[in-house]
Amino acid sequence: MLKKLIILGLLLMNTQANELKNEESPYLLQHANNPVNWLPWGDEALAKAKQENKIIFLSIGYSTCHWCHVMGHESFENEEVAAILNRDFINIKVDREEYPNIDKHYQDVYKVMNQRAGGWPLTVIMTPDAKVFYTATYLPPKAKSKYRGLDEILPDMYDLYHNRKELATTMTYNIGRLTKNKSALAENTSIPIDENLSMLFLSQLTEKYDARYKGIGVEPKFPHATSFDTLLDISRLTLNFDAKTMADDALTAMAKGGINDQIEGGFYRYSTDEEWRTPHFEKMLYTNAELLETYDNAYKMSGNELFKETMNKTIKNIYARFEKENLFYSASDADSNGVEGKYFTYTYRETLKVLEQKGISNAEAQLALNYFNITEEGNFEDKTSNPFLSDEIEPKNLAKIKEILLELRKERDYPFVDYKIQTSWNALFIKGLLKAGEKEKALKSLDALVSKLYLKDELYHQRILGTEPKVKGYLEDYAFLIAALIEAYQATFEEKHLDLAKKLNAQSIQKFYKEKQWHLSDDNFKAIADLDDMPYRSAMAVSIENILLLAHLSDDYDAYDLAQNMLTLHARKINLESSETPYATKVALMLQNGVVIIKANKENLLTHQKEIDELYYPYVLRKAVKENDFSACTMQKCFSTDAKIDKILGDIEGKRF
Questions:
Q1: Alpha helical stretches, state H, 454-595
Q2: Whole-number pLDDT of residue 186
Q3: CA-CA distance, 589 to 198, in Å (whole number)?
Q4: Per residue in 383-418, pLDDT tens?
Q5: Which of 354, 376, 409 is at the close of a domain?
Q6: CATH number of the domain to which 201 belongs
Q7: Whole-number Cα distances in Å, 23 to 17, 41, 327, 400, 473
Q8: Domain assignment of residue 541, yes or no
Q9: Is the predicted pLDDT of residue 146 greater than 80, yes or no?
Q10: Facing residues of 638 across strands?
Q11: % the chain with pLDDT above 90
């Protein structure tokens, strides 16, 4: 009987499966058995909408997105909603990690329409020729709380397009015009970048800084790694103590907070509260990659062992959960067995009992629970607690207690891990490893990434191991891989890294830089890049930085001018919204203050890596040349030469350039 039921279930699943069943994307496969007749993004789906004169229902998300799961379960498994969608709409699903260009474009449209940032899931309703007239994020099947229901919205949108076409046409025209204006270059491109940019950035960020709980903004609270990295650079440049304190305090609060997995290491994507206590439990490779780099910057400035310990635990966790064949999966989910945070949280009584069973005294167990804020009332849902550090005394047997808490977790199912290998995010993490001094690990991963994703002179965006890559590289893939290659050259002085960086840089400019604008992709879908660091550093800003650094390493004055002109075109944006563009601000500060190149033979540079790394001046490159003496140069001149490095370092710190 059981066998018959299983066969019947499989037959029903196969009957219900939609066109997503043939896709590789883990996110699309999660929706392959929805009753909604989903189509993957592509010319076929867009042509079908035109042919049938049906409006388009576009849903964008990713596989480890909690609210995508909620909407998927509530709305897209709902037969009534599916019936409306299948009758009146062409329904298209997009994995934002597979198509970041498509996601970025429609996130920009959402921001224009709603005057605030969007998120995931992103819901877009368009005319049959793909012109937007409605955007939203999460939508339930029926109205609840502040949300309208799809049972109301879908008929309204159908009526708007088919029965009030003049209004719909006006709406699509205005939305299209405003979106185009947002990405257009400013007419006055002669505005220079503000000479007081560092103080401008500090002032703008101070307005958003949470002086009580540290960090930027209110809940939901994101790590903003590049903002703190730029603050640390400003402190190095100006000796401004406030900038360093803001960054150090925020990084300390995050390291001790619930956004950091106190048991296994690794950061969750964001905190749902302003105190950093309760996270949204998904872990993203890019979040940890960026924070790794920022904590390294902070550690080198302060020597704070908490920062070093946080880096080590982050690296250990990413290797434990994401590493495969020296490459890294993209993310892990927040949910286990349909319950958010189930794997990561603890109940007071169960945890106390297990600690005592494992030989921890009642007094020390109580101390440990207080230390990790695991309480009877709980700090999360259903009287469960997410560990974050209190001001209590650290337990003597902390390492053993953590092992016991980890063993307790092992009795549960670990959340789903998205097994895509993404070039951009892997490159970010590899660069973070290099910054953190994990040279051997980083170089193994860099070689693996290039061998798996750069095939026959074509860089690809992602790959599922065991299959062939299909999606060609985007701007972010080129930008972040070039940056990792430059960093690899700085660690090894092997010309192969520099040569490949130059080659990819030339390809990137040719593919993505058109009519003085950077594009996110080299295809028919027009998505303009910008300088905003959202949800991670701007690929456009990194691309300009790559051109600037390679210009210094190649003595290429034309490339130097190109990078300067590219950034200056956006001076108005940087001046007015530098806190929204922290990575671009960092690149602008490089141009204003100057990049210094230390030149010597390879052996001398490798011998003195540690001293060079400890320089307080933030913008220093190293280049291997066939000279025994050391020299320090800017793009304009060499200002210091000596047989010993001490004089060179002193002249750099004294800013004798």
A1: 475-492, 495-512, 539-554, 557-568, 571-576, 582-593
A2: 64
A3: 7
A4: 999 999 999 999 999 999 999 999 999 999 999 999
A5: 409
A6: 1.50.10.10
A7: 12, 11, 22, 45, 19
A8: yes
A9: yes
A10: 633
A11: 94
The conformation of residue 630, written as its DSSP 8-state character, comes to E
The identity of residue 382, as a single letter, is: D
Task: Give the whole-angstrom CA distance, residue 291 versus residue 280.
Answer: 17
Assess whether pLDDT exceeds 50 at residue 6.
no
My answer on whether 542 and 582 are in the same domain is: yes
Q: Which residue has the higher pLDDT, 15 or 182?
A: 182
- Comparing CA positions, the residue from 186, 215, 283, 111 lying closest to residue 574 is 186
Question: Phi and psi dihedrals of 373, rounded to 5?
Answer: 60, 40
148 and 263 housed in the same domain: no
User: CA-to-CA distance for 150 and 141, rounded, in angstroms?
Assistant: 5
What is the tally of structural domains in the chain?
4
Decide: helix, strand or coil at residue 244. Answer: helix
Q: Under 8 Å CB-to-CB from 14, ≥6 apart: which residues?
A: none
Are 331 and 284 in contact, with CB atoms under 8 Å apart?
A: yes
Separation CA 387–CA 406 (nearest Å): 12
Question: 230-242 pLDDT, tens per residue?
Answer: 999 999 999 999 9
Tokens 């229902």 correspond to 57
User: Which residue type sits at 228?
Assistant: F
574 and 467 in a single domain? The answer is: yes
Kindly calculate the radius of gyration of the chain based on its CA atoms and give it in whole angstroms.
Answer: 26
Q: What pLDDT does residue 10 have?
A: 36
Of 567, 593, 619, at which residue does a domain stop? 593
Residue 218, judged by CB atoms within 10 A of its CB (0-12, 13-18, 19+), counts as exposed
> CA 261, 265, 269, 270 torsion: positive or negative?
positive
Whether 279 and 349 map to the same domain: the answer is no
Cβ neighbours, 10 Å, residue 239: 10
Neighbours of 457 (CB within 10 A): 8
Is 260 part of a structural domain of the chain? Answer: yes
Residues 78, 57, single domain; the answer is yes
pTM for the full model? 0.95
Assign 519 to helix, strand or coil. strand
pLDDT tier at 3 (50, 70, 90 boundaries)?
very low
The answer to whether position 4 is within a domain reads no
Average pLDDT over residues 45-69: 97
pLDDT for position 353: 97
Does residue 8 belong to any structural domain of this protein?
Answer: no
What are the tokens at 66? 């909690």
CA 576 centroid distance within chain = 24
Report d(CA 536, CA 303) in Å as an integer: 26
In a 3-state reduction of DSSP, which class is residue 456? coil
Range of the domain at 324: 197-336+417-593
Whether residue 589 sits in one domain with residue 601: no
CATH of the domain at 96: 3.40.30.10
Q: Are residues 99 and 24 in the same domain?
A: yes
pLDDT per residue over 349-378, tens digit each? 999 999 999 999 999 999 999 999 999 999
The reply to whether 239 and 112 lie within a common domain is: no
